Amino acid sequence: MNESNLYVVAAPSGGGKTSLIKALLEKDEKISLSVSHTTRPPRPGETDGVHYHFVDERVFQELLEQNAFLEHARVFDHLYGTGREAVLRQLKMGNDVILDIDWQGARQIRASLPTCSTIFITPPALELLHQRLTRRGQDSAATIRRRMRDAQAEISHWDEFDFVIINDDFNLALSDLHSIIRRGRPVRESEKKQNAKILAELLGTG
Q1: What is the pLDDT along the chain (206 residues), one digit of tens a residue?
Q2: 61-93 burial, b for 16+ CB within 10 Å, e for fewer?
Q3: Is the dihedral of CA 14, 49, 82, 113 positive or negative?
Q4: Among 21, 145, 168, 173, which residue has the least CB neighbours within 10 Å?
Q5: DSSP β-bridge partners for residue 100
């Protein structure tokens, strides 16, 4: 059996995580994405079983009682959970597995599977995050304001992660993500001081 690893990738809403993971999967066929369960409705263009397993709260609670999740959390009034069996099956097949979850889920995964690697992705500025959320055209102004507040709260947990990627340039961020999985370190290792400054500014402490 090939050695395989579990990678937890988190980011604030609008941080570019979904696009980066999609590009990574196209770049490296030995990496698999775990498809989470959620009680939120599908967004335009999303497909059940591809982007998420869309279920109602009753089904989600039944799965929870069956201990079917490696982690679960409530985010933006909806439940999300990572299926235990699917992740372990992919790891046994020799695939590196990515979990696209939030910081709460990352904490739970680290507690149960301490050998996992955790990666946090963040935009370089809150203004850019606001632009990305607005460009989606999927949320009301009130929802965007709430997501901005929640994003800053999520960014405050960056120091719980093994790696931080600043998504200022998509191709460079993608290279960092792929390099962490294949080499155990990002391409831009020399920019740790700059990253710390950006994170401080995002949190209003810089």
Answers
A1: 357 999 999 998 888 999 999 999 999 999 999 999 999 999 999 999 998 999 999 999 999 999 999 999 888 789 999 999 999 999 999 999 999 998 989 999 999 899 999 999 999 998 888 887 888 777 788 888 888 888 889 999 999 999 999 999 999 999 999 999 999 999 998 788 888 889 988 988 75
A2: eebeeeebbbbbbebeeebbbbbbebbeebbee
A3: negative
A4: 145
A5: 9
For 60, 86, 152, 165, the CA distances from 191, given in Å and listed in that order, are 42, 36, 22, 10
Q: Length of the chain in residues, anyone? A: 206
Domains and CATH numbers, the chain: 6-34+96-202 (3.40.50.300)
Which residue's structure tokens are 């962490």?
180
Torsional class of 184: left (φ above 0), alpha (ψ -120 to 50), beta (otherwise):
left
- DSSP 3-state percent helix, strand, coil across the chain (nearest 5): 45, 20, 35
With b for 16 or more beta-carbon neighbours within 10 A and e for fewer, the 10-43 pattern comes to bbbbbbbbeebbebbeeeeeebbbbbbbbbeeee
